[in-house]
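Quick one, T. Sequence first:
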Amino acid sequence: MPESCADLKCPNSHLAIASKKPRCGQDLVIARINELRKVSLHGACSFDRMGGSLLVRGAEREGHKQDMEERFRFIPKEIETHYLQGRESQRLSGDRGELERLRTQAILGRSLPAAPAVVFDVGGAAGVYAFPLAKQGYLVHLIDPVELHLEQARSYAASSGIALGSIVRGDARHLDVPSRSADVVLLLGPLYHLVEHSDRLAVLREVHRILTPRGVLFAAAISRFASLIDGLASGFFRDAEFRKIVAEDIASGQHRNPTNHPAYFTTAYFHRPEDLAAEVHAGGFGDVQIVAIEGPVWSAALFHEAWDDPVQRKSLMEFLSLIEREPSVQAASAHLMAVARRPN
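Structure tokens:
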């Protein structure tokens, strides 16, 4: 794929993003900071002759650069570091990940308007959901805060020949998108990486702003009890430090990983089903439906055996659709999905 999607003609011209235009002011500021780092030898000597300290000047400049990068970072550093490891593009290919992906696609398929509707995949990573939708004829705009994900999406678009409407870096709380221009918004990540309630509400209100009347929101969350269930199923529960993480998850929903163990995830907020519904309502949406994505089966001892058998897999997917709205089992799912519409 080219560096941007300017060459892909968007029927909604006001949504097209030209490659020659700067993607955002924050990027320009950081680029300018990087230019300032290149201190010429002549400039350094002139500064020394003035009696100043080059080391102090350099330290001040580096400190200023770091301050500006922190100011314009869309997500906390530890979250960005987690995703810069490049694991997200592979996460959904294992058995559990495939279950999550196929179930998510099944949930989307039941409520999506007909193509060619306009879809904004906000926090869409490398386009795991964006590209299949584009292949079905939807006009999909991918927005993500991690440049590595955008590079992966551009590379896949170039190799696959599947065009997206645009691929840009952005902040879910401040979308550079015209009001009432989206038929569908996917939030399959932002709500669990924004740990403050006010930030999550800001995202939901932004989505409400850009959606057309009766436009559809799909918002994913991680279950409050996911780390407890996963820890027992995966063996992490043996680690006393992991058990401390679980205790805080259950108590407050605030997930932190002070160990930096890559399997223990990164900074996040874990929802109860009723809390997710309340937040989406508070964002201005009506008719909110909460569904369990993986249901209770993802951690079962014989899940992998059942998933590898095509006959059992088919039955499993059917049963999960039957129980996805059952309140008594929703919190046992690793992920939840809120499906809601913007009122007229």
